[in-house]
Amino acid sequence: MIFLKLILIILFLNGISSENVKKLTNYQIKDITVSGISSGGAMAVQVHVALSSTVSGSGNIAGPPYYCSRGSLLISTTWCMSNLLTLGVDMNAMINKARYFESQNLVDSLQNLRNQNVYVFSGTADIVTSTSVAKKNEDFFRNFMDQSRIRTVYSIAAAHGMVTDFYGGPCSIANIYFMNDCSYNQAFDILSSLHPNENLKIPNSGAELTGMFAEFDQSEFFSDSNTLMDSLGYIYVPKKCETEVCNLHIAFHGCLQGKSVVGNIYAKNSGYNQVADLNNFIVIYPQAKSSLYGGNPSGCWDWWGYTDSLFATKQGKQIKVVKSIIDRVAFNN
């Protein structure tokens, strides 16, 4: 009951916007990567596979592998999460589905993945998505890239959520924000793993920001009422990126972690903005929306088919919105 009251209070407080809403504009972008937590991790992998001619790498924090759910809510909440049921995770089905989608031009050429990079994380104290499930991401991507391009971290005693070195609850204890302070800069590790040739600098813990953090109008990219994405998203733009060439990173929140539930907690405290400030990255935080009547009460990203059966492809409703956002920011369309 206390947990429910906290959620209701947060929902009420976040019904009022505290940021100036911006219209997304074009920047000079040289490379595009994605990452996410839990359902956001699944979404990041889906975007990477579907748009590999545009996106060059993905980070998956405590999320299942590509098309793990096979379009089934039951499978997504059992085999794709539980340590006891991972024998039911059919890797051949996932790989064959990706290849089928490729043959139908529903995902970009899987050959693109060969020279790209992936990050996979699972905390030893995670009781939501087991490490054995997270490791299936390795099994999937090894079919398309060398193991040396897959960065894995399975040794940190983190609960389910984003890991930082300056914000969140105790490392191994779950909390309603799904943010864990484990004295580990996960945002830096992800971005440096996805950009191994750029020698990124690690910021001081909780470093002050110099750029612009704002809400942006996400609804202008919707073409379907069943997208189940929030009307607003978040963006962070370092000062230098207003005039210089920068990288673009898209970070997907997890279930119960979007604006409709916790506001900008994840977008402001994940650690990406500090890394971005020091290393010339623009960071965009798309927002899924909680909906009691749309089959998504927890505000998860669609990785089991609540929007439609093509959710993991270029024709997926949420992926199409993400691609439109990328096109606006990176390609001036």
From TrEMBL:
Keywords, ordered alphabetically: Signal
Classification via InterPro entries: AB_hydrolase_fold
Keyword Signal in record: yes
Leader peptide range in chain numbering: 1-18
KW Nucleotide-binding (keyword) present: no
Protein name: Poly(3-hydroxybutyrate) depolymerase
